[in-house]
Amino acid sequence: MPSQHPTWLPWSSTALPSVLSSQSSKEFKKKKRKKPRSRFRLPCQKPEARTLPPQHIRSVLMLPSVDRSSLSTKKTRKTRFICMGDTHNLSPYQGGFKVPKGDVLIHAGDMTKQGTYKELKKTIDWIQKLVEDGVVEQAIVIAGNHELTLDPPFYASHGHNWHSQDPQDPTTCLSLFAPQNLHPSITFLNHSSAHIILKSPSGPGTHFKVFGSPYTPLFITKVNDLCDGSRWAFQYSPFPNPESEEIWKDIPSDTDVLITHGPPYSHLDGWPVSVGRHGTAEAHKGCEGLRRAVWKVRPKLQVFGHVHQGRGVQRVMWRDGKHVVGMEEGCACSYLEAEENGDKVKVTMPGDDVTHDGDNDGRVGTGTKEMAEKIQGSTHDHAQMEWIDPGAVDDRISGKMSVVDVTKRTRMFGGVGLREGETLMVNAAVRRGGWPYEGVNKVVVVDMELEVWDES
């Protein structure tokens, strides 16, 4: 009976002499026992090794075919960003807040309260000291609407509303941020871009392209009894004015890291407003023009501040396809903040002051599975992708850092690292609430995979 082995196998019937198949089993046993030299003896050498065809392997393992051309061959390495904004004259060297060790410091503007030379010099000094002390290898800084003197056209028209008693010289203030006056490892971006390369032998050796801008939509603030209202620095006409979209067309399409002082619309931009006995609702203060620009560019990381109440993190999966009208987000996975309040746990989302307590007696251990389940129950269907701030839940979990890990080895977001085309958004406001400020947030630490710099 002919063999049923596939003909491509090395032991197929085509490799055996035809006479062997017709020989009786009795004769074969006798010859095998006497071990005679026979012309029917199989060759001693091993058959030539052959590889299983790909189509056979797939049929056995039921795996889909892989398009190798779509797989990235770029080498990446974890890079740590220390993200902050809205420090408003606080200094880590004066106990204002803590800055953990990392690779790149990002300050998203509002370093000061009114942008005086003294305030600006103080901020530049402590950022430079962080670099010199080896806390970070590089620092990237942008201005915000509070840096009044860094916008000379604005200051010429409106500076007297703010500094009537102590007028400042914008040229002198700007000179603090001139490349020749800054530490070589500090980059100041004023609606401009740069290519950052981390070359320290002890660093990750990665690189990225960054764009930074201080601009935010226009709003008016009453300064004092002598001034009914004044605009701030670096402002433009809000959406739907065409200016709100035109200004963001300057963002290069290959931007990896985007730093803006203000948030995009509907992303960590909630300003809680009262709606009677039903609690609060969010009044979004972000820019729709900026959101549309980010939808197109899709940087890996966007850091901003400005709206202090929106402090937190979102992982955004942008939606595409023929069934989508306009520019939409497929999923926005939000930051949750959990704080101990006596024997209870207060769980809030940006712009939400509703407290979700634990069990009937309100006792839920922070940093526990029960805690996570309670939090998950108060969120949307993508709760498994939520980031629960380790620094806010329990300092014992990861020291005192508010860390978000989107590397390949992350244990957050269901163990799924940041994928191509996704954007991690970070509102890194350090000061809490509006004036007078209500406290201090921790800086947000972001661990992210970036491409390794190849000098060749």
UniProtKB/TrEMBL annotation:
Tell me where the transmembrane regions lie.
Answer: none
Q: Where is the Calcineurin-like phosphoesterase domain?
A: 80-309
Q: Example GO molecular function term?
A: hydrolase activity
Report residue spans for region: Disordered: 18-51
Q: Where is the composition biased (Basic residues)?
A: 28-40
For this UniProt entry, which residues form the secretion signal?
A: none
Write the protein's name: Calcineurin-like phosphoesterase domain-containing protein
- Which species is the source of this protein? Orbilia blumenaviensis
